[in-house]
């Protein structure tokens, strides 16, 4: 792995003036370590393997790299970014569009499963420069002849280890077989697991390898390890910790889908607002869960590592490891989700005496001596459970109905008489809209939406249960 240092100002790079001026507008002045190490290599045309955690700035790194190679006057697909999940693909497409604002008429198209196929066909017929998509849907378009990679110059595999975890190895091979051999290939991964090596050897040519440390400040995260007697005591310990720290936003990591669901159900039975995130959820359930957690309508997300990978969860106050992660790299990834952007965070890990050997292995892996600490007093269990601050309302109308966030905000703060500070995130999708409002005004807001009008029309609305 390279340990090359680089001047951290974007202005030192051979980027087009319109990209540099837009970066200034966006407030991007200094490069993150992964950007400083990978961008000069990308601009030279090298294949790159970059290992870095979520939040390291990798999207801007490869986004600037592919935009630098783009010939806008050539209206053909020149770049393809493959992501494991629809949520990550949407985030990546949005970031690339932001980076391309200074360039004239750059078209970025998202092709993801879980979305209707027909509209994607129409969009492809109108052409695109950059495709961001999930492997299954991209492969489907290639097989049906609606997508051509004949003029592709840059292929990006984002969260490559996650895509392999999800069983996409054969699909990735099929997609790469449709791409020119002289393309540039960029592979980004949170971990460089053994499963990633074979695919890197097959798909990349003489790649430069980069590994950067997690972007969070280690001192901003307080790690605590608590030994519990058995599995029954494990759940009680989780309740004690939640009631002591009372995080507004936290993730409980479990090692299996079944455990994630059981822990989520049990927390709700004890009065907490928890939601589960695992591979058995339908796409619509997953979308709804992520929206509600992001807008703080659920304070606790109980997730498996695979389901949580690729999610950009902001302002996470705490992480709770219900068990020590089976993959020690995953432990680092879990803990790195809190204490970001200058904020402090806490990470609590529970284990039984039978798992002592795993704590020892984790300590060796982290090159630290990990010492268990006593749990807070059981008197914490007498405290009232805390509830999510916000509630989520769903409106049966979206972009196709010409709805915009401003229409909803205006309806609630105008005739509805609400304060803007009582309204949280508004996410307008194609046919539906999710709206966060403070819990104590949810009834008022719902009544206004159901009885009032948006764009001169009436829309059905409901409150989602958290």
Automatic annotation (TrEMBL):
Q: Where is the signal peptide?
A: none
> In which residues does the motif Q motif occur?
8-36
The Enzyme Commission number assigned here is 3.6.4.13
Family matches, as Pfam families: DbpA, DEAD, Helicase_C
InterPro entries per the record?
A: DbpA/CsdA_RNA-bd_dom, DEAD/DEAH_box_helicase_dom, DEAD/DEAH_RhlB, DEAD_box_RNA_helicase, Helicase_ATP-bd, Helicase_C-like, Nucleotide-bd_a/b_plait_sf, P-loop_NTPase
Annotated ranges, domain Helicase ATP-binding? 39-210
> Does the keyword ATP-binding belong to this entry?
yes
- The protein's name: ATP-dependent RNA helicase DbpA
In its UniProt entry, the species of origin is given as Cobetia crustatorum
The major lineage groups are: Bacteria, Pseudomonadati, Pseudomonadota, Gammaproteobacteria, Oceanospirillales
- Coding gene? dbpA
């Amino acid at each position: 792995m390279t340990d090359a240092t680089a001047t951290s100002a974007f202005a030192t790079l051979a980027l087009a003036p319109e990209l540099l001026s837009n970066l200034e507008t966006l407030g991007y002045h200094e490069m993150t370590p992964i950007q400083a190490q990978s961008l000069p290599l990308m601009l030279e045309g090298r294949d790159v393997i970059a290992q870095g955690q979520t939040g390291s700035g990798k999207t801007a790194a490869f986004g600037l790299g592919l935009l630098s190679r783009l010939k806008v006057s050539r209206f053909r697909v020149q770049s393809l970014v493959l992501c494991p999940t629809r949520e990550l693909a949407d985030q990546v497409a949005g970031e690339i569009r932001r980076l391309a604002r200074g360039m004239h008429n750059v078209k970025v198209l998202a092709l993801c499963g879980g979305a209707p196929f027909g509209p994607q066909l129409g969009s492809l017929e109108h052409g695109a420069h950059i495709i961001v998509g999930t492997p299954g849907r991209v492969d489907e378009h290639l097989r049906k002849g609606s997508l051509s990679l004949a003029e592709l110059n840059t292929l990006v595999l984002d969260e490559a280890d996650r895509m392999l975890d999800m069983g996409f190895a054969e699909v990735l091979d099929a997609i790469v077989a449709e791409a020119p051999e002289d393309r540039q290939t960029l592979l980004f991964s949170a971990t460089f697991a053994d499963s990633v090596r074979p695919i890197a050897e097959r798909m990349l040519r003489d790649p430069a390898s980069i590994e950067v440390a997690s972007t969070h400040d280690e001192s901003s995260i307080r790690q605590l390890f608590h030994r519990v007697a058995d599995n029954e005591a494990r759940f009680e310990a989780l309740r004690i910790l939640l009631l002591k720290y009372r995080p507004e936003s936290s993730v409980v990591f479990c090692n299996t889908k079944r455990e994630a669901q059981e822990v989520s159900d049990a927390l709700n039975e004890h009065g907490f607002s928890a939601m589960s995130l695992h591979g058995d959820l339908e796409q619509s359930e997953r979308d709804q869960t992520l929206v509600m957690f992001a807008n703080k309508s659920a304070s606790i997300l109980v997730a498996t590592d695979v389901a949580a990978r690729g999610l950009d969860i902001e302002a996470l106050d705490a992480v709770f490891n219900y068990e020590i992660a089976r993959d020690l790299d995953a432990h680092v990834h879990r803990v790195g989700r809190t204490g970001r952007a200058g904020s402090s965070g806490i990470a609590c890990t529970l284990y039984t005496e039978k798992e002592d050997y795993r704590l020892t292995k984790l300590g060796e892996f982290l090159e630290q001596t990990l010492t268990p600490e006593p749990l807070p007093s059981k008197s914490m269990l007498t405290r009232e459970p805390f509830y999510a601050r916000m509630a989520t309302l769903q409106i049966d109308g979206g972009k196709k109905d010409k709805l915009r966030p401003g229409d909803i905000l205006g309806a609630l703060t105008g005739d509805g008489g609400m304060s803007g500070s009582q309204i949280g995130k508004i996410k307008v999708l194609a046919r539906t809209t999710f709206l966060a409002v403070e819990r104590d005004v949810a009834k008022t807001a719902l009544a206004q939406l159901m009885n009032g009008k948006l764009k001169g029309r009436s829309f059905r609305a409901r409150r989602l249960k958290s």
